[in-house]
Amino acid sequence: MENIDIVEAEILKSFEKGEFQSVVSKIELEKFKAAARATAIKDQRVNIRLSLGDLKDIQVRALEEGIPYETLIASVLHKYVTGKLVDVNEV
């Protein structure tokens, strides 16, 4: 195993023994799978220019979320074009 501490090793053992159960319903799971499929299809490349400050802020936000910054940018753009990202000042 890679470098894991004692607590992580115990959690891993419990998981491998099947001691954890999902709390997600089948309907929710299908919804998550559909969302993952829709956002995973990346067949076009786009190059954009950003200010250094904006890029650094995006990278910090992505680090806080635990995702690559390119994924965060793609997610924000996807939410915007599908109407799921709204300006809180307009609501």
Written description of the protein model:
The chain is an all-alpha fold and 91 residues long. The chain is 58% helix and 0% strand. Helix 3 crosses helix 4.
Q: Strand content of the residues, in percent?
A: under 5%
Helix content: 55-70%
| Global geometry | extended
Could you give a short account of the major beta sheet? Answer: none
Q: C-alpha Rg, in Å?
A: 18 Å
Class from helix and strand fractions: mainly alpha
Report the mean per-residue pLDDT as an integer.
85
Count every beta strand, where a strand is a DSSP E run of 2 or more residues.
0
Topology:
Elements: H1 6-16, H2 26-40, H3 52-65, H4 69-81
Helix pairs in contact: 3-4
Question: What is shown here, in short?
Answer:
The chain has 4 helices and no strands.
